[in-house]
Design goal:
The complex is a heterodimer of chains A (446) and B (354).
Chain A lengths: L1 H22 L8 E8 L6 H22 L6 E8 L4 H11 L10 E2 L3 H14 L3 E2 L17 E2 L5 H16 L9 E7 L2 H17 L2 E7 L7 H10 L3 E5 L3 H13 L6 E3 L6 H4 L10 E3 L9 H11 L14 H24 L6 H9 L2 E2 L1 H6 L9 E2 L10 E2 L1 E4 L4 E3 L4 E2 L2 H19 L6 H6 L1
Parallel strand pairs in A: 1-2, 3-4, 4-5, 6-7, 6-8, 8-9, 9-10
Antiparallel strand pairs in A: 10-14, 11-12, 13-16, 14-15
Chain B lengths: L12 H4 L6 H21 L2 H27 L7 H18 L5 H20 L7 H21 L17 E3 L2 E3 L2 H24 L1 H11 L1 H6 L4 H28 L9 H14 L4 H25 L5 H22 L4 H14 L5
Antiparallel strand pairs in B: 1-2
Helix pairs in contact in B: 2-7, 3-7, 3-8, 3-10, 3-11, 3-12, 4-5, 4-6, 4-10, 5-10, 7-8, 8-10, 11-12, 12-13
The chains are: A alpha/beta (446), B mainly alpha (354).
Chain lengths: 446, 354
């Protein structure tokens, strides 16, 4: 009868599954705002996913402990492991979006692939999605992408600022003529996004762009670096994530390509990217997104209210690392979106649709940032119905073997080049998806 | 006691050839379909529909396609994900380039494109067998992955290489609610499952099985290996292609080539091995095992209020699923479908086993 027992057990498992399904949905009304967290603490991208998630959660904990929530509305959250896989990400999003008294306030995916899949759903679910520094570049067009917010930057602005940096280094855009630039990129929408802009700029400045894709997860890059050895490009742009970044730097060491000439995007410029390469990473450059490594006023608060009480999500040493700080800023953007929306809709738990208004009307200037204790760790953000990004600024920092050091002026993305591309691309998306763009002027009046 | 066929006499050939010869089975399947079509859409939460049932049904469909090839015809394939991709991209290109087409026609055409690709990559099966064939189909996986990532025409020159089609429209209705999507997928799955079940009971299925069991003997009794093998590749890839189109259009809504990578092929292969090779029912078991179980394990600690970190849960999930796969394969190498049929046998004799 063993098999019958197995059958009974199987049936039990199935019943338990049905039970969990049914219980999702019934929640008591409480003065709580729910934040879903799609994180990845396992897999090839975990080295970068973990500090970001820890920073995000720590900041939520801090706001609860220090301020008692968002104007009295307590913050709740739940993490769901995506392992950077799109299908699990979609499952996580579906699992978490209805939790809390008002459903998910706002979601970060920290994955371009998941962003693409979820963008399709957030519009009908009316849940805003913040992709600060990543996601679809054209989604800064708020008239088409009502619920997407690539706050403070996206891949096109990053690529643009890298080219500006090279031009400055070489002594003018005209000096870029004939220079060879190789883009070593993760072969996914994430890595492919900057290509359009780099090609646009290549037309203007007549540099040579060679594209060297690296397949997921990026531990095998011999072919790409062999080509670099042969072509000897003047500069290499690195568009990697997770283990791909540290592998690339190690390959550069093996190839003998000078690290000083490698420029990573802001997703390839954190401690987990350079540390595994040891001394070899010295001289490697990358962009900074909003916050560099280091500690400010807010970190003292995190120590005081979270870590010293034994509530820290990760190890104490990682507080102040690049990705930890970026996770904190991401949490701050979520919370400020809710706070802004509370001004219009009242100090109560808000629905995603209401938070969307808050994110669309963000006005975080230097003064507001200072009040939050983020001076030096965040760039001002102001958004509108048409512009879901705000200003995108960045600078380059260099790894000196033990820490990141600022090594350039601050650049601002040239929107005269980027905006037409955004409008074109968004228009094409709207046609394909049959979306009627919003009339922002009319909404402002109404 | 309940499950007994005493007194059910087959008086016609028609009765004898029925898909479900036992009345209780017919009642059970009928009730299951009624519940799936009528009760589930109104009761199940949006999460259950969109995140659990729709992917489960599509996985089951793809597994059926693969099972026809591997389980029934004995040709190992590691290119399932690629054939799903062919279906998805074919459907996408048909929808954007010929917008007048009814989506059902698009699905059929997408399936036919996948079938053509499947036959093309099935040609090596005429000369090579077993693991060597697996490697040849692996080439299909890599080549098709590469093609959709590199040839920009397929993705309509999208800058990031990902595509996002509009919601499906069918006879003037837009299929965008979870209920509508679920019903649409369910209908497609039921129709194709029935077709597959009847195919394997017919002469084509018997040819496939003869080839699987011993190709030389099959050839001696007059079965043409070329026809049998290529038809298995074509039918299998057709179903897989339709599943791919559904995966892209209904489940993901927007996708990139990586959505159909080798991982997906392997996962589908695991599904049919665990569910049961050469069993249509087994595909559903396998898909349920590989899709529901990890998600259930992932949610269990939170639902029970056990404080474990997300990372630990994720690792535990992998370990337990892995252990269970090994466990089931040791206990019943013929898969969950075999367990089911043993259970049915026992139930027939219950409560007086001899």
């Amino acid at each position: 009868m063993t098999s019958l027992h197995t059958q009974v057990r199987l049936a039990g498992v199935a019943l338990a599954a049905v039970g969990t399904l049914a219980s999702a949905g019934a929640y008591a009304q409480a003065k709580e705002q729910f934040f879903p967290i799609l994180s990845y603490r396992t897999g090839a991208y975990a080295p970068n996913g973990v500090p970001f998630a820890n920073g995000y959660v720590d900041y939520l904990k801090l706001v609860n402990a220090r301020d008692g929530g968002i104007n009295g509305v307590k913050i709740t959250w739940e993490e769901c492991e995506t392992a950077y896989a799109t299908d699990r990400g979609v499952e996580c999003y579906e699992r978490l979006k209805g939790k809390g008294p008002t459903g998910a306030a706002v979601v970060h995916t920290l994955s371009t692939g998941i962003t693409f899949a979820i963008t399709d759903k957030t519009a009908t679910d009316k849940i805003p999605i913040i992709t600060a520094g990543y996601g679809r570049s054209e989604s800064m067009d708020g008239t088409v992408f009502k619920y997407n917010f690539p706050l403070s930057g996206m891949y096109w602005t990053a690529a643009d600022m890298l080219i500006q940096h090279l031009a400055k280094k070489e002594g003018g855009f005209d000096k870029l003529k004939g220079k060879k630039i190789a883009l070593v990129y993760h072969d996914s929408p994430y890595g492919k996004e900057p290509i359009a802009l780099l090609q646009e700029r290549a037309k203007m400045h007549a540099y040579d762009l060679s594209l060297l894709p690296v397949t997921h997860p990026g531990v095998e890059q011999k072919a790409a670096w062999l080509q670099i050895r042969q072509q000897r490009p003047d500069y290499v742009f690195l568009w990697g994530w997770g283990v791909m970044n540290s592998t690339a730097i190690k390959e550069a060491v093996a190839t003998g390509y000078p690290r000083e000439k490698i420029y990573g995007v802001w997703w390839a410029g954190a401690e987990p990217d350079v540390r595994p390469a040891g001394d070899g990473a010295k001289g490697y450059n990358a962009l900074v997104f909003q916050s560099p490594a280091g500690k400010g006023k807010v970190h003292a608060d995190v120590m005081k209210y979270v870590h010293d009480k034994g509530q820290g999500t990760g190890p104490k040493d990682e507080v102040g690392e690049v990705l930890y700080n970026r996770g904190m800023v991401a949490a701050l953007l979520s919370i400020e979106g809710v706070k802004r929306a509370q001004v219009k809709y009242g100090k109560k738990p808000l629905r995603g649709e209401e938070v969307q208004w808050g994110l669309e009307n963000l006005a975080l200037d230097d003064k507001a940032i200072a009040a939050l204790g983020f001076t030096g760790f965040m760039t001002p953000v102001s958004t509108s119905c048409t512009d879901h990004m705000g200003r995108s600024t960045s600078y380059v920092h260099t790894w000196d073997g033990s820490k990141w050091v600022k090594s350039s002026d601050v650049y601002q993305a040239d929107m005269q080049i980027i905006l037409p591309m955004v409008r074109n691309s968004a228009k094409k998306y709207a046609e394909e998806k049959k979306i009627q763009p919003r009339d922002c002027a009319k909404e402002m009046a109404g | 006691m309940l499950y007994r066929e005493n007194g059910q006499f087959k008086t016609t050939y028609r009765d004898d050839l029925a898909v479900f010869p036992i009345r209780q089975d017919r009642v059970f399947i009928g009730a299951l379909l009624a519940v799936a079509f009528l009760v589930v859409p109104s009761l199940a939460s949006e999460y259950a529909l969109r995140a659990l049932l729709i992917p489960f049904l599509i996985y089951a469909l793809a597994a059926i396609g693969l099972n026809l090839l591997v389980g029934y015809c004995g040709q190992i394939s590691l290119g399932t994900g690629a054939f799903m991709a062919v279906g998805a991209y074919a459907a996408y290109n048909l929808v954007i380039r010929v917008p007048e087409l009814n989506f059902l026609i698009v699905l059929v055409l997408a399936g036919l494109c996948a079938a053509a690709a499947g036959m093309l990559f099935g040609i090596p099966s005429l000369r090579i067998k077993g693991l060597y064939l697996a490697v040849a189909t692996l080439a299909a996986q890599f080549f098709i992955d590469w093609m959709f990532a590199r040839v920009k025409w397929f993705t309509d020159y999208s800058s990031s290489g990902s595509v996002s089609p509009a919601a499906i429209e069918l006879f003037g209705l837009t299929i965008d609610t979870p209920q509508a999507k679920y019903l649409f997928v369910l209908a497609v799955v039921v129709v194709l499952t029935l077709a597959a079940k009847n195919l394997v009971r017919g002469h084509i299925g018997r040819e496939w099985m003869a080839i699987r069991d011993m190709d030389v003997a099959a050839e001696v009794i007059g079965i043409r290996p070329v026809y049998a093998k290529l038809s298995a590749f074509a039918v299998s890839s057709f179903i897989v292609g339709v599943a791919g189109a559904l995966w892209g259009f209904v489940h993901l809504g927007a996708w990139e080539p990586a959505a159909f990578n080798l991982n997906l092929s392997l996962r589908l292969l695991f599904m049919i091995i665990i569910g049961g090779m050469g069993s249509i029912l087994g595909c559903f078991f396998g898909a349920a095992f590989m899709w529901f179980l990890p998600i259930l394990l992932n949610q269990l600690p939170t639902a029970l209020g056990i404080p474990i970190s997300t990372a630990t849960i994720a690792h535990l999930e992998l370990m337990i699923v892995g252990a269970l796969i090994v466990f089931f394969l040791i206990v019943e190498p013929h898969g969950l479908a075999r367990l089911w049929s043993i259970g049915k046998e026992k139930l027939r004799l219950w409560p007086f086993p001899h």
